[in-house]
């Protein structure tokens, strides 16, 4: 099977030393999830939760977790949504 853009994206993230991705699963990024599934021994996905206080307020997905990863370990944080 031919490589997809999502496969190349995940391979590049692995080359850059990324081992954890935060975000929301959804229809718009199913290709990325398939690429993550086929590389799950090298990179893992950490699903996020968002608590909305009103319809107008929608915080970025797991911004605090990805910032915490960078601050505590120095690793590169990645968030998809």
Blueprint of the fold:
Layout lengths: L4 H11 L4 E4 L6 H9 L5 E4 L15 H11 L5 E2 L1
Parallel strand pairs: 1-2, 1-3
Helix pairs in contact: 1-2
Question: Could you explain the architecture of this structure?
Answer:
This protein is an alpha/beta fold and 81 residues long. Helix content is 38%, strand content 12%. Helix 1 (5-15) crosses helix 2 (30-38). Residues 53-58 have low confidence and may be disordered.
Task: Offer a few descriptive terms.
81 residues; alpha/beta; Rossmann fold; 3-stranded parallel sheet; 3 strands
CATH domain fold name: Rossmann fold
Largest beta sheet: strand ordering: 2-1-3
Helix content: 25-40%
Q: What is the arithmetic mean of pLDDT?
A: 78
Number of domains: 1
Overall structural class, as computed from helix and strand content, comes to: alpha/beta
**What about the largest sheet?**
3 strands, parallel
Order of helices and strands: HEHEHE
Based on Cα principal axes, name the global outline: globular
Give the gist of this structure.
With 81 residues, this protein is an alpha/beta fold.
């Amino acid at each position: 099977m031919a490589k997809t853009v999502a496969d190349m994206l995940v391979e590049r993230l692995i080359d850059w030393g990324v081992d954890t991705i935060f975000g929301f699963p959804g229809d718009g990024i199913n290709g990325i999830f398939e690429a993550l599934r086929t590389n799950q021994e090298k990179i893992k996905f950490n699903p996020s939760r968002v608590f909305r206080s009103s319809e107008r307020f929608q915080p970025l997905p797991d911004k605090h977790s990805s910032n915490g990863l960078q601050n505590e370990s120095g690793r590169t944080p990645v968030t998809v949504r």
